[in-house]
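Q: Hi! First time doing this. I have a protein sequence and I read that you can turn it into a structure. Is that right? Here it is:
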Amino acid sequence: MRPDDWVEHWLPRAWGPYARLCRLDRPVGTWLTLLPCLAALVQAADGWPTVWRLFIFSLGALLMRGIGCTINDICDRDIDQKVERTRFRPLTSGQISLKNALYFLLGQLLVCAVLLLAINAYSRWLAVLLLPIVAVYPLCKRFTYWPQVVLGIGFNWGMLMAWSDTRNIVPLAAVAMWVGAVLWQVGYDSIYAYVDVRDDKELGLHSTAMRFADKGKQWISGFYIATIVLWVYSGVALHMAWGYYLILAVIAGHFVWQMRLFNLARPDQNFMLFRANIWVGVLMIVAALGGTVLG
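A: Yes, that's right. Below is the predicted 3D structure, encoded as structure tokens:
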């Protein structure tokens, strides 16, 4: 956390710890949740989605990411005390009590419940199914080497809801696009996991980075290749225009660039590569527009 960021300068002092608890000061995760969802909205609308739907899904992505981070910090409050990178988080450092954190979590859930009124019945049920996925993720690192899979399922769930709310159906091609996004996230979040692998080993936690060990480049490359294959299939099944495939080629090139720079011995560089996946999310939207608007 940065003590001189916008949270410190612009928010009332009492609000700051809550903003940090839901990671408003660290928007990378929000963008990585939102951008694939926006791409799915474009594909489902076969062009430009309505402004109202863009607003609802953007707010939903922000809230669900905040809920996930709040649950994560509640579950990990004892573990975070033992890690240099996380020991100053609001709940761990005592800036927020557990009781107030639970009230804050309830408040976020209530706002999300109100948002359900703005989407159709199919999408409401999908939203309800997302909650246990978000709740169980923080516990996964305690008993499986694959918590990134659960995280990818939850982070990209909005892609399915984009289709269900726009078309009242989730076609197989949309599911394949979602699975591709899940595999993409397993890849880039594994890069991030290598940053924390030393602390995770000491604490007895698990991650894909520990499972892949020194074969991380091969594993992550495999996930990225599978992502591109699934996204190509989805484009064909959804009759995307040529612009979609052109941008997919750019995304594939970006993945190659990531793997060329990926280095197990360079945590700082790996964190940069993790953040660079925001550009993949942006390119997903461009690809969706190229495949629909140009079609």
